[in-house]
């Protein structure tokens, strides 16, 4: 049956420019669709939401297979997830109070201005390399305390880790996984060494805060520090690059909405929320049942791979009116752009600030920009979907 090959077709690189017809096919095939390799796809909004909030659904890959390292808290379950996430958030300041993200707003605006200073009429530029990548990398390096000149080093590690974290059919991927584990180990060692240099000589950054925590009960072990720092460095820029680039591409393809945002920049926060629904940087997530879970007439067996296709849920017509329409004024926009449940994206406040600043800075230039290539070349990763390059002519 065609429905049993949906995951293979979705993850096929040929589908990267436009996976949305396949997501529609997934929703039509049923809320839950078993694949030929024994995994399950879930593509409807309400079922995805139920499973994201179900404590029987594990994010920990060790539920299914042996790994050579302890996963970051993104891939752990409570109570360990809650403990590490809480410790990692401490340097941001108390919840619901002004913290590092708010303090960074001025610097984020300054960085966006500097990056757009070279944008001149008649010039061709790459939105990714010239803008969407350097902005969040500069910000996360500043927050963590990582030297910006080391970016080429951790970019190679980051690419390997992200490749190994992709959702893909049950096939032999040992080489990719081993490369990812090796890169994660080297990156963790690099970040722990940076942190150790700040012990008793702290700077105003998160690595300093982690390694100089005065309360022994709140200190991260070296392994926890390595995994947490790797997660923050990678997650702090990878998804934001996609959010900004997908946003710029969407606006260039919708000139009417682009013109409206140029006239009414106060709509930008709502436009970013709509971009998170319409073209989310994270397309899907894997979960593994601890026990049998019944959902929409299907029993998900223990240890099965269950792929929650978040981007499909974001286009579910049973939840969103005219879901394939990009509408920056959409009301009640409870999307899965940052996930949901206990693993709701840790960096969502920072990503929102960066995306609003970035698109606000791009708006004056996009109105007269022309796409050089449409569709542009995409990154290999199916889970973290976004253009590898986005060349435009001003």
Question: How would you portray this structure in words?
Answer:
- This protein has 394 residues and is of the alpha+beta class.
- The protein has one domain: Cytochrome p450, CATH 1.10.630.10.
- It is built from 16 helices and ten strands.
- The chain has a five-stranded mixed sheet with strand order 1-2-8-5-3, sandwiched between helices.
- Helix 5 packs antiparallel against helix 7.
- The longest helix has 24 residues.
- It starts with 5 loop residues before the first helix and ends with a strand.
Topology of this protein?
Elements: H1 6-11, H2 20-29, E1 32-34, E2 40-42, H3 45-52, E3 57-58, H4 80-89, H5 100-116, E4 124-126, H6 127-132, H7 134-144, H8 151-164, H9 174-197, H10 206-211, H11 222-235, H12 238-253, H13 255-263, H14 268-278, E5 285-289, E6 293-295, E7 298-300, E8 306-308, H15 310-313, H16 348-366, E9 370-371, E10 391-393
Parallel strand pairs: 2-8
Antiparallel strand pairs: 1-2, 3-5, 4-10, 5-8, 6-7, 9-10
Helix pairs in contact: 5-7, 5-16, 8-9, 9-11, 12-16, 14-16
What is the domain tally?
1
Radius of gyration: 21 Å
Percent helix, as a range, is 40-55%
Kindly report how far apart the N and C termini lie: 47 Å
Low-pLDDT stretches: none
Number of strands: 10
Quickly name the level 1 CATH class: Mainly Alpha
Q: Largest sheet, described in full? A: 5 strands, mixed
Number of contiguous helices: 16
What structural class do the secondary elements suggest? alpha+beta
N-to-C SSE string, H for helix and E for strand: HHEEHEHHEHHHHHHHHHEEEEHHEE
Shape-level CATH architecture = Orthogonal Bundle
How much of the sequence lies in strands comes to: 5-15%
CATH topology descriptor? Cytochrome p450
Strand order, largest beta sheet = 1-2-8-5-3
The CATH H-level homologous superfamily:
Cytochrome P450
The dominant shape is globular
């Amino acid at each position: 049956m065609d429905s049993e090959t949906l995951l293979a077709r979705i993850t096929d690189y040929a589908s990267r420019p436009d996976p949305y017809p396949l997501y529609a096919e997934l929703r039509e095939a049923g809320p839950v669709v078993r694949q030929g390799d024994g995994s399950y796809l879930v593509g409807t909004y309400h079922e995805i939401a139920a499973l994201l909030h179900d404590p029987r659904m594990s994010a920990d890959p060790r539920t299914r297979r042996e790994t050579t390292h302890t996963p970051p808290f993104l891939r752990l379950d409570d109570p360990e997830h809650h403990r590490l996430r809480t410790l990692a958030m401490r340097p941001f300041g108390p919840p619901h109070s002004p913290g590092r993200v708010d303090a960074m707003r001025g610097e984020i605006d300054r960085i966006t201005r500097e990056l757009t200073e070279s944008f001149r009429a008649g010039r061709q530029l790459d939105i990714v390399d010239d803008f969407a990548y350097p902005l969040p990398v500069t910000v996360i390096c500043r927050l963590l305390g990582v030297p910006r000149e080391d970016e080429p080093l951790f970019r190679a590690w980051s690419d390997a880790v992200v490749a190994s974290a992709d959702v893909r059919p049950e096939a032999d991927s040992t080489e990719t996984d081993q490369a990812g584990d090796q890169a994660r180990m080297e990156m963790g060692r690099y970040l722990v060494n940076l942190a150790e240099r700040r012990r008793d000589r702290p700077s105003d950054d998160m690595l300093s805060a982690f390694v100089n925590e005065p309360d022994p009960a709140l200190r991260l072990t070296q392994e926890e520090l390595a995994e947490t720092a790797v997660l923050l460095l990678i997650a702090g820029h990878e998804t934001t690059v996609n959010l900004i680039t997908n946003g710029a591409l969407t606006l260039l393809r919708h000139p009417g909405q682009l013109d409206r945002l140029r006239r009414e920049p106060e709509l930008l926060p709502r436009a970013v929320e709509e971009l998170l629904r319409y073209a989310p940087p994270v397309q899907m997530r894997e979960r593994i049942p601890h026990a049998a879970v019944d959902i929409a007439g299907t029993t998900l067996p223990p240890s099965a791979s269950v792929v929650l296709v978040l981007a499909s849920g974001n286009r579910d017509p049973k939840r969103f009116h005219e879901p394939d329409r990009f509408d920056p004024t959409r009301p009640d926009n409870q999307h899965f752009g940052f996930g949901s449940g206990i693993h709701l994206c840790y960096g969502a406040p920072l990503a929102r600030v960066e995306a609003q600043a970035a698109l606000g800075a791009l708006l004056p230039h996009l109105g007269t920009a022309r796409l050089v290539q449409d569709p542009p070349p995409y990154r290999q990763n199916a889970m973290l979907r976004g253009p590898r390059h986005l060349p435009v002519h001003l």
